[in-house]
Specification:
The chain is of the alpha/beta class and 272 residues long. 45% of the residues lie in helices and 15% in strands. Helix 2 crosses helix 4, helix 6 packs across helix 7 and helix 10 runs antiparallel to helix 11. The two termini are 35 Å apart. Bound molecules: acetoacetyl-coenzyme A. Acetoacetyl-coenzyme A (CAA) binds next to strand 5.
């Protein structure tokens, strides 16, 4: 696999800088892979992680159509780096309590910046796939939820821990969770902060596939290859259409289908 530093566009970030944050970013043709790479700390995430994710999104090479998000080691991600809540904090990053003392607008702006690390994974031009083994807790679960698709290893364990810590899930995870499992189950899962194992997660629709751990990488490669076999323009237009479906009436959705199809037909006949 070709390893590249992100570069050449706005928000460029070097591989060495990513390594310090505990991330790797590799591009192999149309597939980009983001690896959470702090296995000794179970891929705990910091503000620097989210800011780097956002910059990767901003500078994603144009040829990329599939983005894989994976975690090195036994866990996908143990969520927010709990040092953030301690007076010592994470070296080089603001102590959480200092942030909390700021006015609401500043505080919310900071959260909005963190959310940018997650939001781009939903772009219609790409299909994002989370490869989840072991624990995906809090921010880790939300990162998996930010992806379009999730492949679960048999040992995957998902937990929305935030309410148990006195917080709410604020890294874009609540909407996909409710969309996938429905409101009552989302309330039950979040307010008990219980751990959902891979089998239950699959049954709830939180994963598209469950495989033995040693087959996780191959399963991701197979899914990526299947996605890439589809025409790029059609894939982008279809994802855009599907993403908008819940927010539209049947009539509006039919109109959206017509608009997208008119563009597809024109493109097809212009080619022939
Ligand atoms: N932050 C910082 N360090 C963490 C961490 C975290 N979230 N999770 C694990 N680590 C560290 C441990 O402190 C330990 O470090 P040392 O070796 O230096 O002692 C190392 O990673 C390995 O951890 P364990 O020995 O506990 O590993 P395990 O495989 O037995 O257990 C685990 C894994 C179940 C994930 C467990 O580590 C755990 O429960 N971690 C905490 C999970 C958590 O509460 N995360 C916060 C979620 S809420 C959130 O994310 C908030 C938000 O978005 C706003």
């Amino acid at each position: 696999m070709a390893e590249v530093a992100v570069g050449g566009r706005a928000g460029a970030i070097e591989a060495s800088e990513l390594a310090e944050i505990g991330l790797r970013f590799e591009v192999d043709g149309e597939i980009a892979t983001i690896t959470l790479d702090r296995p000794d700390k179970r891929n705990a995430q910091t503000f620097a992680t989210w800011s780097a994710l956002a910059r990767i999104g901003e500078s994603l090479p144009e040829q990329v159509r599939v983005v894989v998000v994976e975690g090195e080691g036994p866990s996908f991600s143990a969520g927010i780096d709990l040092r953030i809540f301690t007076p010592e904090g994470v070296p080089g990053q603001t102590f959480f309590a200092a942030n909390a003392a700021r006015d609401d607008e500043t505080l919310e702006r900071g959260i909005a910046e963190a959310q940018q690390g997650f939001l781009w994974l939903r772009r219609p031009e790409i299909v994002s796939i989370a490869a989840v083994q072991g624990h995906a807790i809090g921010a880790g679960f939300q990162l998996a939820l930010a992806c379009d698709l999730r492949i679960l290893a048999e040992d995957a364990k998902l937990c929305m821990k935030e309410p148990a810590l006195g917080l709410v899930p604020d890294l874009t995870g609540t909407k996909p969770l409710v969309d996938i499992v429905g409101l009552p189950r989302a309330i039950e899962m979040c307010l008990t902060a219980r751990t959902v194992d891979a089998r239950e997660a699959l049954a709830l629709g939180l994963g598209e596939l469950m495989v033995p751990g040693e087959e996780l990488k191959q399963a991701v490669r197979d899914l990526a290859a299947a996605v890439l076999a589809t025409d790029r323009g059609a894939a982008t237009a279809t994802k855009r259409l599907l993403q908008g479906a819940r927010g539209r009436s049947l009539e509006e959705q039919c109109a959206a289908e017509r608009r997208e199809q008119a563009v597809r037909l024109k493109t097809m006949f212009a080619r022939s």
